[in-house]
Amino acid sequence: MKVFTFNSYHIQVISAVSLYWFISISLVFLNKYLLSSNELKLNAPLFITWFQCSTSVILCLLLSYLSQKYQWFYFPRITFEFRKTIKILPLSVMMLMMITCNNYALKLVNVSFYFIGRSLTTVFNVIFTYLLLKTSTSLKVMVCCAVIIFGFWLGVDQEEKLGSLSWKGVLFGVASSAFVALNAIYTKKKISVVNDDVWKLCFYNNINAAIIFFPLIFFTGEFDELKVFPYFFRIQFWLIMIISGVFGFAIGYVTGLQIQVTSPLSHTVSGTAKACAQTIIAYFIFSEIKSSLWWCSNIIVMGGSLVYALVRNKELKERNLQIPK
Q: Model-level pTM?
């Protein structure tokens, strides 16, 4: 019998997955605390998003400078080019809408329901891939999408029966799912502008988003909200804001790290499992009461998402084998 032993590769995988889970789950709870906690009561989601985008820009510039000065770590050299900023603007708009809808959804729904509320990303990805990229979809993929839609509908129905549903939150969750799918498609189309460098894309994306968000803060009345916010000059508030900004920046790195150390399929499986853990953690933290059908809806969505990932992975492998070399 072969005895399983840990090696450096296993340690790398466990470390990458654990780091991804920690950063991703922490970011969700940090944003939830900032957006709708009883302690803060800050009704300014656009300002919070603007601050996080600005933090990412500053961190990109800082890490680029440190990388040039010290040789013990690598970060691409960041230089601003207006031409690239304009070319990436369509992607930045998609990212802006994705983050805005995501934060409004997180503000309005429970963290335990957050996974269900944003579970239609896979469905929108299939739809937009067909409409924009003219890529056909197999029957197996369509069945997986139908399963996810059924799980989403069941989850919404059960959340409403429990009396904790926000229809606005559901609509923002659906919109967020659509823009997540569009963001992925536009990323593939626009990343060549920065020579396929993810960090440079992050830099330009966040610059555009920060510039667009700033006037919106005034037009939506959030500036007036900030003027009367009692914790605006508290160190504790800004410490949480800075941590959320750093985690928002770090999620891009740990996502790429997990994909690099494992695979895109493993990343999808890990993300689905992370969402399950996140739901359970929120359930215990907030002492919520959920029905058995509510839990079934989560299982159905997670199952449909996992099977979709396996089906798509198999189809891509078969398609690559059919391409003549």
A: 0.83
